[in-house]
Specification:
Layout (H helix, E strand, L loop, with lengths): L1 E4 L4 E5 L2 E12 L2 E3 L4 E4 L4 E16 L4 E5 L6 H11 L5 E7 L5 H14 L4 E6 L11 E7 L13 E4 L9 H18 L3 E6 L6 H15 L2 E6 L5 H4 L6 E6 L9 H15 L4 E6 L4 E3 L11 H11 L5 E4 L3 E6 L7 H11 L2 E6 L6 E6 L5 E11 L4 E6 L7 E9 L5 E4 L8
Parallel strand pairs: 8-12, 8-13, 9-12, 13-14, 16-23, 18-19
Antiparallel strand pairs: 1-6, 2-6, 2-7, 3-4, 3-5, 3-6, 9-10, 10-11, 15-22, 17-18, 20-21, 20-23, 21-22, 23-24
């Protein structure tokens, strides 16, 4: 369908949809839409097409998509003022953006970096929103430098990232902060004028407040921008010392997304980063593992293995022992009782973790090179316990030195099945 939109109007498009500019002058969050360029709006996302002169657009709407023409300015004056303040800072400058779920953080970050690129500033954006990451796969903190304006941060591939392995920071606070500090150091070494860091929407409650304040302090921010609906950010933004704080209201036109829509966006991102993947085999004897019992210990001595078999009254398919744990893998039909496990723990004076063959299928992992750099993600297809081989579905073609185990499980279509602690080391 074709739509003629008058100058000064904004067309809000909720995906899934595609929009092509046939004539006129339109931009999206400061990024110009070229004539005959087709922009895809993902399901669960809303993009504002601001019309600078009367324009003709062609729209293709998928199921559930909608459009709404409004007179309201989708880039509020407060955003323009905040951006002017940010771009007037000394270089290099680090800006950290905080706000609740669907508060407009990503749109604001997109607008700021677009204006910075237009001023030929060397600009980098970091996406630290584990659950709704646009730059890098879900469960990672990723970044890239921009050379031209973008309409959607999803257009940017991650130049580098840190694999956290969870879509929520609540159980991985240290990993997120340490990862951000590490990435910022790399970015500064590469040279940057403006670094913009987008964060997750976890802002309410004592733990969330402590987490965000640690982020601001330990990552090192020159400016913190807060987007809030009422006063929910006051505990985070109060008393930050020399850090410049800019607080703005969340625009009314920002779309509110359901949990299912956010999950769908993650699944689209998994598919993006698993494109052209194939099953590859990795020997546990030749790679390092992180955040996993499997592969982090050694074989039980003969007598200890005999006692384990006697106590559990079963012959394990696989077992290994670390300083704190004994991992026992049973075949799919084997079983043990709680009393037998307790007896084994009394003997070893360690936690005895029992899993079944196949429990690992679908587990998300991160792959790194010998310099500890992120290469990409993968999904465990199978573990060959007899040969100590990991079979992983991944597009990574480079040499892998380390595999980091996450706690997210996916099916073969990249749909999230839930969380798994099958190889977790700290539970």
């Amino acid at each position: 369908m074709k739509s003629i939109v008058e100058k000064g109007q904004t067309l809000l498009v909720d995906g899934p949809a595609s929009v092509s500019l046939l004539s006129g002058d339109v931009n999206v969050l400061g990024a110009p839409l070229k004539v005959e360029e087709k922009l895809v709006v993902r399901e669960g996302k809303r993009l504002p097409f601001t019309v600078l002169e009367t324009s003709t657009l062609e729209l293709l709407l998928g199921q559930g998509a909608c459009i709404n023409e409004v007179e309201n300015e989708t880039v509020p004056a407060s955003w323009v003022d905040a951006t002017d303040q940010i771009l007037g800072l000394g270089k290099p400058a680090t800006v950290l953006v905080v706000g609740g779920v669907d508060s407009g953080k990503t749109s604001f970050c997109t607008f700021v970096v677009n204006q910075a690129v237009k001023q030929t500033l060397r600009t980098c954006v970091v996406d630290a929103d584990l659950g709704q990451s646009d730059i890098g796969p879900p469960s990672t903190v990723g970044y890239n430098f921009l050379t031209e304006p973008v309409k959607d941060l999803f257009e940017i591939d991650a130049q580098d990232a840190v694999f956290v392995g969870s879509t929520s920071p609540s159980g991985a606070i240290n990993k997120v902060i340490e990862g951000l500090v590490q990435l910022k150091s790399r970015i500064m070494d590469a040279g940057v004028d403006l670094l913009v860091i987008n964060t997750d929407g976890w802002v309410e409650g004592e733990e969330a407040v402590g987490y965000k304040r640690r982020l601001i302090t330990e990552v090192g921010s020159d400016v913190v921008v807060g987007l809030q609906r009422t006063t929910e950010l006051d505990p985070i933004l109060g008393g930050l010392g020399d850090v410049k704080v800019i607080v703005m209201g969340s625009p009314e036109l920002i779309a509110s997304r359901s949990r299912e829509k956010r999950k769908l966006l993650r699944e689209l991102s998994y598919k993006k980063y698993l494109k052209d993947a194939k099953v590859q085999s990795f020997s546990l004897n030749w790679i390092d593992v992180e955040d996993s019992i499997l592969g982090s210990g050694g074989q039980l001595h003969h007598k200890r293995l005999q006692n384990l078999r006697s106590l559990l009254r079963i012959n394990p398919l696989y077992s290994e022992e670390t300083l704190t744990d004994v991992l026992v893998v049973l075949n799919k039909i084997g079983g043990v009782t709680e009393e037998q496990i307790e007896a084994a723990e009394d003997y070893f004076q360690k936690r005895v973790k029992i899993i079944r063959e196949g429990d690992e299928e679908g587990l998300l992992v991160g792959l790194k090179d010998e310099e500890n750099r992120f290469l990409g993600i993968g999904v465990i297809h199978e573990v060959d316990y007899k040969r100590k081989m990991l079979k992983i579905f991944t597009p990574v073609a480079e040499k892998v030195s380390t595999i980091s185990f996450g706690q997210i499980t996916l099916d073969k279509t990249c749909k999230e099945l839930g969380l798994s602690t099958v190889f977790a080391t700290d539970l």
